[in-house]
Amino acid sequence: MALSGIQIYKLLPQTNCKDCGFPTCLAFAMKLAAKQVELSACPHVSEEAKAQLAESAAPPVRLITLKSNGHEIKVGNEVVLFRHEKTFYNKPGLFIRVRDDQPADAVKAAVAAVDAYTVGYVGMDLGLDGFAVESVSGDAATFAAAIGAVRTVSGRPLVLISKDAQVMAAGLGAVDGEQPLIYGADGDNWEAMADLAKQHKAPLAVIGSSLDELAELTEKIKGKGIEDMVLDPGGRDLSTSLVQATQIRRLSIKKNFRPLGYPIIAFPCDAGDPARESVLAAQAIAKYAGFVVLGDFSPEKVYPLLVLRENIYTDPQKPIQVQPGLYEINDPKPESPLLVTTNFSITYFSVANEVEATGIPTWLMVADAEGMSVLTAWAAGKFDAERIAKSVKTFNVEDKVSQKRIVLPGHVAVLSGELEEELPGWEVKVGPREAVDLPAFMKQVL
Predict the structure, then answer these.
(1) Which residues contact 293 (CB under 8 A, 6 or more apart)?
(2) Using one digit for the tens of pLDDT, what is the confidence trace for 295-335?
(3) CATH topology agreement for domains 64-312 and 325-445
(4) Which top CATH class is 5-57?
(5) pTM of the predicted protein model
C-alpha cells in the first residue's frame, strides 16, 4: 500500500536543503504522498530509500504502451480527476473494430480508409490510432488471417479480442515481436491469458462484472508476474459506464488503490446505434477511458471525437500556440500588405484562412503573445506597441516589405498612436475587429 506523508518523510534526508523547491522535507513528503510532485525532485534521496518509495512515487494509474512497426500509443500515467487540477497527459487511443468473419478484401478496404485518414485542426494533423481485431469465428487460423490482412495495409497498434487462449495464441503469433493489447482475461481463463501475456510481453485486458471482481483478478494476475493491465468493468450503457469509470478513477487517484490503478477500455461499438455510439465514445473520452473501440469508420463520426479528445488532453494552463514569425499567404510580394495578430492558434488560423480565401498576397506577422487571443493579450499586457515593434525588428520585416504600412486588429485600435511612435516612418492602419470581416476590408481599403 502507499505510504503516508510522515512515512515518506522518515525516508528522506531531513536536511531541509530546499533543493526540491519546498521549504522543508516534510512539505515535500506531503506533496509526494498526494502525487503532486515526483521523487526525482529530491537530489539527495538514497538508493535504498528510492526503492522503498517507489510505490508512493509511481503514478496512481499505470502507464500502458502498445507498440507495432514504428508506431506506439501510451495511455495512463494520469494523476488527477479533473484536467483543471493539473492536466491530463496521455490521450485515449481511438481504435476501429474489424471482425475475422469479414472477407479479407473488406477488412483491407476498411483498414486502408482508416490508415489514410488525417485531418488538419489548428495546425495539427489528427488521426486514429489503431485497430481492434475481434475473433467472431472462434477459429484460430481465421483469426490469424484477419490480423494478417490488417497488417498488409497498416502497421498501427492492435487490440486482439478473444477469450479463447488457443485463438489468442494464433493471433499473437501473427504479430510476433509487437506489443498488442490482449483482450481479455476473465474469471475462467485468466491463468492461460496471463501466461500468453507473459510470453509475449504484452499488456492484458481484465474483464470483470464488478469492481470487486476486477480488483481480485488484477491481484491474481499480478501474482503471475504481469504488471501491465487494462480494465473492462463491463458497463455498456451511459449511466453504468460513467459510474464505473468514475469509481475506478477515484479509487486509484484519491485512495491510491493499486488493484484498480490501470487504464480503462471502453466499447461504444456495442451500442447498436451510430448516434448512441458517438455519445458513448464522447463520454468515454471525457470520463476516463484509455482505449475506445469504435464499430466502424466514417469521417463525420470520428472528426468530432478527435477534436474533443484534443481539446480535453491539452494543458488548460497552456493555450495552443503557433510559432511567432512572419508568414506568407498567397505568395506575397514586397509591396503586399502587412497584417499583425497574436500567436493564439485559433486566432492565427481564423485570420490566415480568411486572408487566404481572398486570394490577395499578404504578409501576416504573428507576434508572441504567450498564446493569448488579441483582446486577452492586450488586457494582460502581452500584446502592445512595444512588442509589435520588437516583432517587426526580430523578423526582419523591413527587409521583406517595401510598403511600410501595418494593419492592427480592430480590437486594439487604441495602440495605433503608440505604434506610430515605436515605428517611425510607418503608416499604422486599423483593421476590422473580427477575422470574418477581413476580406471586405482588404478589398476596399488596402
Answers:
(1) 95, 96, 97, 132, 159, 265, 266, 267, 268, 269
(2) 999 999 999 999 999 999 988 877 788 999 999 999 999 99
(3) no
(4) mainly alpha
(5) 0.80
